[in-house]
Amino acid sequence: MRDIGQSTMRHIGQSTMRDIGQSTMRHIGQLTMRDIGQSTIRDIDQSTVIDIGSLTIKHIGKSTMRDFGQSTMRDIGQLTMRHIGQSTMRDIGQLTMKHIGQSTRRDIGQLTMRHIGQSTMRDIGQSTMRDIGQLTTKHIGRSTMRDIGQFTLRHIGQSTMRDIGQSTMRDIGQLTMRHIGKSTIRDIDQLTMRHIGQSTMRDIGQLTMSHIGQSTMRHIGQSTMRYIGQLTTKHIGRSTMRDIGQLTLRHIGQSTMRDIGQSTMRDIGQLTMRHSRSINNERYRSVNNETYRSINNERYRSFNNETYRSVNKVRYRTINNERYRSVK
Length: 328
Description:
Layout: E1 55-59, E2 65-68, E3 81-84, E4 97-100, E5 121-123, E6 136-139, E7 175-180, E8 231-236, E9 248-251, E10 284-287, E11 290-293, E12 300-303, E13 306-309, E14 316-319, E15 322-325
Parallel strand pairs: 1-9, 2-5, 3-4, 6-8, 7-8
Antiparallel strand pairs: 1-2, 10-11, 12-13, 14-15
């Protein structure tokens, strides 16, 4: 790993990460992530993968992990993660991470991380891998993620998650996640996620998620998988992701991540995903063959042939022919 500017990241494996810029792996206060492997990361809008202050990314496997941010993986967030077995994460408070597999992580104070395995973690900088944070990441591996508090996500298995928040992947305090696997999860409103694959998720309160597959997720906090800031992520494979406080990400596999910029891959405070049109003024976007109207003013969206009203005003939604009320 090298620090170039405030920080530079390098991936150890087939992938490599680089930070070039004041603190973001690249831009000044910005982060660019690229997936060079089986997965690719795409940012889809203002908040996309995340606007949460800082960002922490972890790589587990052949790749290396790096923490970039004042408290990274921890600051406001308060994050406690635990990996157990292939990997399991939990957030329990400011941030204590334990890996009981090839790696082990711990946050003590602002952030102290330890990797015990092929990967290494580093904390670099005021601006975590990026700027005021935005974050786009992809997971590729078997690990699971969990945030208990501000955001909890868990992927286990081949399922995919999808968060469709107020602006989906984009608006303020909203999160859009996309999984690419057998199952899909959807966020509806503040956040209710369901898994339709090997696992299932449930919202309880603001959000409680349970996986009934190989993994289980629980959210214990106001915004799960999403709120503080914004968060958009993609999962590809069995790995899991997690946002914790500012944002903690884990990469597990051969791929590498890159964050691109204050506007992450694009404008200031905005994130552009591969198939998005002009970000500030666009009224319709197409992502993975899915079309939805302008995020701030949109009233109806369509994802995977499922239609539901805007998140704030919606009272009933239908997902997979199931009808249930909004979380609020």
